[in-house]
């Protein structure tokens, strides 16, 4: 697979929605866009073809805001999976997930080997590093009723400060391997930005304002903050409803009835004792919480008594959905909990999973 590195944006490219980029770009492309400060901000869009918020934000930024004035800082724009974007798909059959193909920072080895994309992305990575990037932003969308959030791969105050400019809640993850943000974290502050559902104007506006804010930064603060000012979370467990148990979101309709608007709890920190569901005619352990080693940690997360299901410790759910089908096929939610960036052990936590990336 041939690298496609451009020194300026092709004429007419900004007129095109993500679904039409394939007409001008043959594959993953890197474009330099010169600005006043030569150390570039790396902006990655469309690693997943159906997640077009990043591209929409860049179109507005370059077409409207900076059409006739110089960018405060150069941009190195990575345009990912244009062939999947054509069909509004995450990726095409036979393609790897692009965001698993970047060199893994710790081992400097690719996770997916013998794939043309891994050698292409390694080449792009080397080219990016030659330019001493200022910071890197990899822009994504996800499904469900989740707020926008920033995710990072290292407990590094520059990254936390950069993330706090995007959202008050920050997710720490180290898995899956092969993500662009983890690869770039070796070289500069680097974030994955989750901008809600694709096609939502609010996500585009937020990404646009944030990119512009990053372009105007001269430096990134690295001053440690008190723990209580840092809402940094990691994934604790995946929660399933016991197989064969009847459940619903209607009161008194089944063995297990969840509270109304359960999905509104996404990304809110629930204090211990938060009511999640009523159990009718039984007091069984109707939820199962497994950590990412597959260990059952249900009893440290939930209580099942007096006909109620409640939380036992401070927890923050994500990906909660009222869709019974999705819960049956996939899971009820992911649970996160706060980590203390000032704790000495914080920087050595490994095997932390990003909730969005579980396909
Ligand atoms: Zn994505």
Q: Could you list some keywords that capture this structure?
A:
8 helices, 359 residues, Aminopeptidase, five-stranded mixed sheet, 25% strand, twelve-stranded mixed sheet, 2 domains, binds zinc ion, alpha/beta
Major sheet: 12 strands, mixed
Shape: globular
H-E order: EEEHEHHEEHEHEHEEEEEHEEEHE
CATH fold-level label of the largest domain? Aminopeptidase
Radius of gyration over all CA atoms, rounded: 21 Å
Total strands: 17
As a percent range, the share of strand residues is 15-25%
Bound molecules: zinc ion
Molecular structure report:
The chain has 359 residues and is α/β, with parallel strands linked by helices. It has two domains: 5-229, 3-Layer(aba) Sandwich (Aminopeptidase), CATH 3.40.630; 235-337, no CATH class. The protein contains eight helices and 17 strands. The protein has helices spanning 53-65, 82-86, 116-130, 157-164, 180-185, 201-216, 298-301, 324-329, and strands at 5-6, 29-33, 35-45, 71-79, 135-140, 149-152, 169-172, 190-194, 231-241, 247-248, 256-258, 275-279, 287-290, 302-305, 308-311, 316-318, 333-338. Strands 1, 2, 3, 4, 5, 6, 7, 8, 9, 13, 16 and 17 form a twelve-stranded mixed beta sheet that branches. Strand 14 and strand 15 form a beta hairpin. Helix 1 crosses helix 6. It starts with a strand and ends in a 21-residue tail after the last strand. 41% of the residues are buried. The mean pLDDT is 90. The structure holds zinc ion (ZN). Zinc ion (ZN) binds next to loops. The site of zinc ion has 3 residues, from loops.
């Amino acid at each position: 697979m041939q690298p496609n590195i451009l020194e300026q944006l092709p004429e007419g490219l900004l007129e095109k929605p993500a679904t039409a980029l394939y007409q001008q770009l043959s594959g993953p492309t890197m474009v330099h866009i010169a600005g006043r400060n030569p150390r570039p901000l790396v902006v990655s869009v469309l690693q997943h073809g159906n997640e077009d918020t990043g591209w929409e934000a860049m179109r507005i930024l370059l077409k409207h805001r900076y059409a006739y004035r110089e960018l405060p800082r150069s941009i190195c724009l990575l345009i990912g999976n244009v062939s999947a974007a054509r069909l509004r798909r995450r990726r095409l059959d036979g393609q790897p997930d692009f965001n698993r193909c970047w060199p893994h920072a710790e081992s400097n080895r690719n996770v997916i080997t013998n794939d043309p994309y891994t050698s292409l992305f390694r080449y792009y990575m080397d080219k990016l590093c030659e330019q001493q990037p200022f910071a890197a932003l990899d822009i994504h969308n996800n499904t469900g009723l989740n707020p926008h959030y920033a995710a990072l791969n290292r407990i590094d105050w520059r990254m936390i400060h950069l993330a706090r400019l995007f959202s008050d809640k920050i997710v720490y993850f180290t898995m899956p391997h092969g993500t662009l943000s983890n690869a770039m974290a070796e070289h500069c502050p680097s974030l994955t930005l989750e901008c809600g559902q694709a096609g939502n104007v609010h996500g585009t506006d937020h990404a646009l304002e944030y990119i512009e804010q990053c372009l105007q930064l001269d430096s990134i603060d690295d001053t440690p903050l008190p723990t209580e000012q840092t809402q940094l979370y990691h994934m604790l467990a995946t929660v399933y409803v016991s197989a064969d148990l009847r459940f619903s979101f209607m009161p008194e309709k089944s063995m297990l009835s969840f509270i109304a608007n359960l999905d509104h709890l996404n990304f809110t920190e629930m204090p211990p004792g938060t009511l999640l569901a009523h159990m009718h005619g039984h007091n069984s352990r109707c939820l199962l919480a497994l950590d990412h080693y597959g260990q059952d940690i249900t009893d440290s997360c939930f209580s099942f008594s007096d006909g109620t299901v409640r939380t036992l410790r401070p927890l923050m759910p994500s990906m909660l959905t009222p869709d019974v089908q999705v819960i049956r096929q996939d899971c009820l939610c992911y649970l996160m909990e706060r980590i203390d960036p000032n704790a000495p052990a914080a920087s050595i936590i490994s095997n932390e999973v990003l909730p969005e990336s579980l396909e």
